Amino acid sequence: MATFPQRLDSPLAYDIAKAMMDGFNRHYRLFRTESARAKHRFETADWHGQQRAQRERIEFYDLRVKEATARLEKEFKAGEQAMDVWQQVKLHYIGLLVDHHQPELAETFFNSVTTKILHRTHFHNDFIFVRPAVSTEYIENDEPAATPTYRAYYPTHETLRESIVRMIDNFQLQGPFDDLERDAALVLEAMSARLAQVKLRANFQIQVLSSLFFRNKGAYVVGKIINGFNEVPFALPILHGKGGKLVIDACLFGEDDLQALFSFARAYFMVDMGVPSAYVQFLRSLMPRKPRNELYNALGLAKQGKTLFYRDFLYHLRHSSDKFRIAPGIKGMVMLVFDLPSFPYVFKVIKDFYPPPKDTTREKIKGKYLLVKQHDRVGRMADTLEYSEVAFARDRFEDELIEEIRKFAPSQLEISDRDGDGREEVIVKHLYIERRMIPLNIYLQEAFDAGLEGEGVAAAHARGQVERAVIEYGNAIKDLVAANIFPGDMLFKNFGVTRNGKVVFYDYDEIEYLTDCNFRKVPQARNEEDEMSGEPWYSVGPHDVFPETFAPFLLGHPVVRKVFMEHHGDLLSAEFWQGHKERILAGHVHDVFPYEREKRFRKARVAA
Q1: Residue 282 pLDDT > 90
Q2: Is 286:224 a contact under the CB 8 Å cutoff?
Q3: What is the pLDDT of residue 531?
Q4: Is 335 marked within a binding site?
Q5: Given a cut of 90, is residue 534 above it in pLDDT?
Q6: Contact 545, 517 (CB under 8 A)
Q7: Which of 292, 375, 419, 480 could form a disulfide bond with 485, CB atoms 3.0-4.6 angstroms apart?
Q8: 422 in the Ramachandran plot: left (φ > 0), alpha (ψ -120 to 50) or beta?
Q9: 451 vs 588, residue with greater confidence
């Protein structure tokens, strides 16, 4: 039990708490300003500026933590203060949180600064927020200029289109729509399919979050239709159409569509939020299966996402008894991967050494993971959470896993009772945590094992599984290409299949920008000796890639080959890759849609 002081008698404690809060308020003000500017960048079609801002905003948090730490050391010699002073600092800080609009983020900021100043590997829970001290329920911004978290509209069947137009107008986008009335009619048609034969109840309404969600080249209206006891989530993507005028591109409905839009494999949104917890609460009502940590991540509040993930993880450990084990699947050359069967994530540790032909370093690998964190992940690269000095109970680890870490990553392992509580712990110095997926090679093998020949239901299902997976695999690579990413190692084992059947890339140690690669055709063999040679008879530069050589590694199975060549044969030609590279170098930003193309209104607009 924490023994807090009977009275707050340190005048320094309040000053430290206030300075820390000033540091957080500066951080959130800058974060919010940058997020709000996304609207102007969208209106002016400044796509490169949008990408740059998304990349730079990720670094804001660490910069503000460093600034706050430096100020506290300089003005208050914070690291030299007695522990009872730090207890009082925390209590004063809680007092400052009571009427705050972002208390949960401010608590996380306090933890980040405090752990930097106290220079301890394990921190006494008295001095940090292990669990929230202040509720985030029902926070309202009552300042006169503040907008509410969401707006509510109360249309009838007759006024529904008019309400849709008003809903869009309320966002005050600077720039004309191509034909907002026409687009509202298309949205109405999509909504009417959901509301046909449905009696509108007394509470029929549309609730829409007050800020647009900006990402890449899109702006998204996010809300829900409420009728009686039913709630239907929806999102409306707004894009720049031909001629630069705005269009509503689609109407996305239901939890699955929203889950895809907010996927852990996509870049973070830019949203201007006065009360972020209220946005998360609203989004949870649309996607109840999505963990809160992933929603904070999707909103660009990655540090809060990490805090919540870790709390969920500790809670899961307390309520489970299975053991960490070496993750099933082909072992990687660079990463040692382990998991807890009952927990839907994998833990990845960089090995200390890499067999040939791998030529890399720990710093280079960390650089690749940072590249992915800062880049547009286009729904095809899994987000990662990065942690240092993570302590696990030793009795939750299989001995085989301990030996594996000892053998391949000894520098990352410590086994000790570091906090002196009499229990031995496994401390991992640095690791990445990712959503668990079925490796694509295992997913395909399951279908092969079920049997692809024959007329039965099982064979038809297996063939369908292979076809969908191979088409998705090619689509994943093409989306990465559109985002200026060359995966490097394109083997099936480096891709995973999500719960919704999406194929996502998750092995980043050989990732490169497409624009840094040189795509070449294999030169003609000079003679029979060249043709029979196991080694290339032509010069190969460090950034040279020969797409036609992918085939032997990927297309050994005849069914896989047939589907791949039918849908994605162009991936084996140097012209495909070089053409995309040249367009990107010329400044083109490709469209990558977080929804199926058949959901787009393009055809309906042409018909209209």
Answers
A1: yes
A2: yes
A3: 65
A4: no
A5: no
A6: yes
A7: 480
A8: left
A9: 588
User: Binding residue per annotation — 18?
Assistant: no
DSSP codes, 38-103? HHHHHHTT-HHHHHHHHHHHTTHHHHHHHHHHHHHHHHH-GGGS-HHHHHHHHHHHHHHHTT-SSH
Q: What is the pLDDT of residue 126?
A: 63
Q: How far apart (Å, rounded) are the C-alpha atoms in residues 240 and 538?
A: 46
**Which tens digits make up the pLDDT trace of 206-250?**
999 999 999 999 999 999 999 999 899 999 999 999 889 999 999
Report the C-alpha gap between 214 and 221 in whole angstroms. 9
Candidates 277, 304, 384, 305; CA nearest to 109 is 304
Q: Which of 509, 493, 163, 265 is nearest to 367 (CA)?
A: 509
Catalytic residues: 383
Q: How far apart are CA 374 and CA 383, in angstroms?
A: 10
Confirm whether pTM is higher than 0.70. yes
At a CB cut-off of 8 Å and minimum separation 6, what does 148 contact?
140, 210
Q: What does the angle CA 83 – CA 86 – CA 92 come to, to the nearest 5 degrees?
A: 150
Write out the two tokens for 193.
Answer: 């399919």
Whether 331 has a binding-site annotation, put simply, is yes
Distance from C-alpha of 264 to C-alpha of 253, rounded to nearest angstrom = 19
**Side-chain-side CA neighbours of residue 536 (13 Å):** 11
Q: Cβ–Cβ contacts within 10 Å for residue 440, how many?
A: 24
Residue 333 assigned to a binding site: yes
Q: How far is Cα 115 from Cα 56, in angstroms, rounded to an integer?
A: 24
Rg (the chain; Cα; Å): 27
Q: Is residue 235 part of an annotated ligand binding site?
A: no
Strand, helix or coil at 469? helix
Contact residues for 106 (Cβ-Cβ < 8 A; gap 6+): 21, 24, 93, 96, 97, 100
Q: Is 220 helix (H, G, I), strand (E, B) or coil?
A: strand
Q: Helices (H) and strands (E) in the chain — how many of each? A: 20, 20
DSSP state letters, 536-572: -SS---TTEE-GGGGHHHH--SHHHHHHHHHHHGGGG
**What CA–CA distance (Å, rounded) separates 105 from 89?**
17
Q: Are 527 and 538 in contact, with CB atoms under 8 Å apart? A: no
Burial of 305 (0-12, 13-18, 19+ CB in 10 A): buried
Longest dimension (CA), the chain: 90
**Contact status, residue 31 vs residue 60, Cβ threshold 8 Å:** yes
Higher-pLDDT residue of 146 and 445 is: 445
Inter-CA distances, 155 with 202, 229, 232, Å = 11, 17, 16
Report residue 42 as tokens. Answer: 């969208």
pLDDT recorded at residue 380: 94
How high is the pLDDT of residue 4?
Answer: 63
